[in-house]
Design goal:
This protein is an alpha+beta fold and 411 residues long. The protein has 18 helices and twelve strands. The protein has one domain: Cytochrome P450 (Cytochrome p450). β5 and β6 form a beta hairpin.
């Protein structure tokens, strides 16, 4: 596929009318990056009238906003992201609360979801990666997301959480419908009904698993969350439920997008694939650069707790703000040649694909481990991986960036 057919990102000159940024517009979903460049240059804070929200485009401002949890609360995040797809509407989500509640939850989660626990699962994770690649290798052409990128994180999170194998395809559907719930206004009644039904099933399943873990603990993450304790404090059943939802959703979306987006980027920049294949030490850089260049999470939400000024614009108290991660990660003030995909760049520590500050993604280490293992094993198995999807259709959820499908030809 020719590089100009993929449209993973383009220069500002490639999109006339890029002053008309709206995160839900079809043009922005096709290619948001020229719009982000315009915002950074001319309108770093933009009020989106029908959303009653302020979009924040520059890296410096996004970073400051994410670090200032006293001025910008995380409390609206889940309802705006999940909408009717929320399986735990009465639970307190860690990513949607502020200190001291967040501090308490994060402390308990870190005890259960540790790097040591992840390393103990490396053999099982590697077996899952190999199994999916072996199955796909029987076909010269296949749909990469369906065959590898989507089932991989669900199977791995399922393994870590102790979920029976027979449920993992169902989890994929539940995860996809939860994120689709944030597009409530654009959904047909039958779609919305299916999303609500799945949210209810999602909740009931995990409530039963959590009860089982309290009665009979096992060697899995759900049991570890139930048993986690700090200074005499433990997680409630609702808090464990919310964490299970987050781990499944975030684990699915980030890794699926990372793997699919990596091959979109390599198709657009074939010289970078040659570099990585020649020097496998660059696979870690490839995962991080993919996260920067095509950030899986493009936009999230905060609420201003007081009148606050950003880039000369007054954000009124209780207003919703939208830090645009996708724009911050292409900011020319921070990243040299930001529209160039470069696995050898030295400024990757500044990317915010996993968030920033106290809400840095708790599953970051797992996503990077999955990405590096999968990419290395794919390069081992196939001499060439050609993207044949043309054109790329991007996912419907406006705050995510990932192909809906990615047909590939492997040899």
């Amino acid at each position: 596929m020719a590089a100009n057919q993929i449209d993973a990102g383009a220069s500002i000159d490639a999109a006339p009318g890029c002053a008309d940024y709206h995160p839900m517009s079809a043009a922005v979903r096709r290619d948001p990056y020229p719009y982000y460049a315009h915002l950074r240059a001319h309108e770093p804070v933009r009020y989106i009238e029908d959303l009653h929200a302020y979009a924040i485009a520059r890296n410096e401002d996004v970073r400051a906003l994410l670090l200032n949890h006293e001025r910008f609360s995380s409390d609206p995040l889940i309802q705006l992201a999940f909408g009717e797809g929320n399986p735990a509407p009465d639970a307190q989500y860690m990513i949607a609360c502020d200190p001291p509640d967040h501090t308490r939850l994060r402390t308990l989660v870190n005890k259960a979801f540790s790097r040591r626990m992840l390393e103990s699962q490396r053999v099982e994770i590697t077996a899952i990666v190999d199994g999916l690649i072996n199955d796909a290798a029987e076909l010269e052409e296949f749909e990469f997301i369906e065959a590898i990128a989507s089932p991989l994180p669900v199977q791995i999170v399922g393994q870590i959480m102790g979920i029976e194998t027979s449920m993992r395809a169902t989890f994929r559907r539940w995860s996809n419908n939860t994120t689709a719930g944030g597009n409530g206004e654009t959904l047909a009644p039958d779609q919305l009904a299916a999303i609500k039904s799945d949210a209810n099933d999602f909740r009931e399943y995990f409530e039963e698993r959590i009860s089982d873990a309290r009665r009979t603990p096992r060697e899995d993450l759900i049991s570890a969350l139930v048993q986690a304790e700090a200074e005499g404090d433990k997680l409630s059943a609702d808090e464990v439920l919310a964490l299970c939802v987050l781990l499944l959703i975030a684990g699915n979306e980030t890794t699926t997008s990372l793997l699919a987006n990596a091959f979109v980027c390599l198709a657009q920049f074939p010289d970078q694939e040659r570099l990585v294949r020649a020097n496998r030490k660059l696979v870690a850089q490839l995962t991080e650069e993919t996260l920067r260049y095509l950030s899986p999470i493009q936009v999230l939400f905060r609420r201003a707790t007081a009148d606050t000024e950003i880039a000369g614009v007054t954000i009124p108290r209780n207003a919703i703000v939208m830090p645009i991660y996708g724009s911050a990660n292409r900011d020319e003030r921070v990243f040299a040649n930001p529209d160039r995909f470069d696995v050898e760049r030295t400024d990757l520590r500044q990317h915010m694909a996993f968030g920033w500050g106290i809400h840095m993604c708790v599953g970051r280490a797992l996503a990077l481990l999955e990405g590096e293992l999968a990419l290395n094993h794919l390069f081992d198995r196939f001499r060439t991986i050609e993207v044949t999807e043309d054109p790329i259709a991007w996912c419907d959820a406006f705050y995510l960036r990932s192909p809906k499908a990615l047909s590939v030809r492997c040899r």
